[in-house]
Amino acid sequence: MRHTLFVAILLAAVSVPTWGHADADGTIGVVRNSAGSASVIRGGNVLPAMTGTRIHVGDTLGTGPDGSLGVILRDNSSLSLGPSSSLVLRDFLFSPDEGKFGLLVRLSRGTMAYLSGLIGKLAPEKARFETPMATIGIRGTHFAVKAGEPVSQ
Asked: Alpha helix (H) ranges present in 55-104?
């Protein structure tokens, strides 16, 4: 039984991506999955968001009316976008050896779900999410938000 438990823990540890500092190319995460119309806009170039597409600070992630997109960041945070969504990864800092953390995401429209990784657990005050109407600071491990046109009353 102890041997089986050890093997299971070892396999789990190997299967989780281990990210230290950003890759030399500035990668802060990767697309885990996408469906329908989904893209990454980087420096004016529109890239199809396919499994394995690298994500950088400043990238705009977008989905069409039939699209969805899931991203995992270096600290093992997960971001999921629903249809007709657009967000910019404005800042990401993950250097646990130096005690430096930061995450700033701006959702301009659509829906997003967030599941915190190490930044949200070690320095939750350093993770912020902006929408056109509010700024969200996290104090938990997950949330969902919808941004769009204000409803008139």
From this structure: none
Give the SS3 label for residue 13: helix
Torsion on CA atoms 86, 66, 43, 119, rounded to nearest 10: 50
Please measure the distance between the N-terminal and C-terminal CA atoms of the chain and give it in whole angstroms: 62
Q: What is the pTM of this model?
A: 0.76
Sign of CA dihedral 34, 44, 20, 118: negative
d(CA 150, CA 123): 31
Helix (H) / strand (E) element for 124: namely: none
> CB within 8 A of 2, min separation 6: which ones?
none
7-24 tens-digit pLDDT:
333 333 333 343 444 456
DSSP state of 22: P
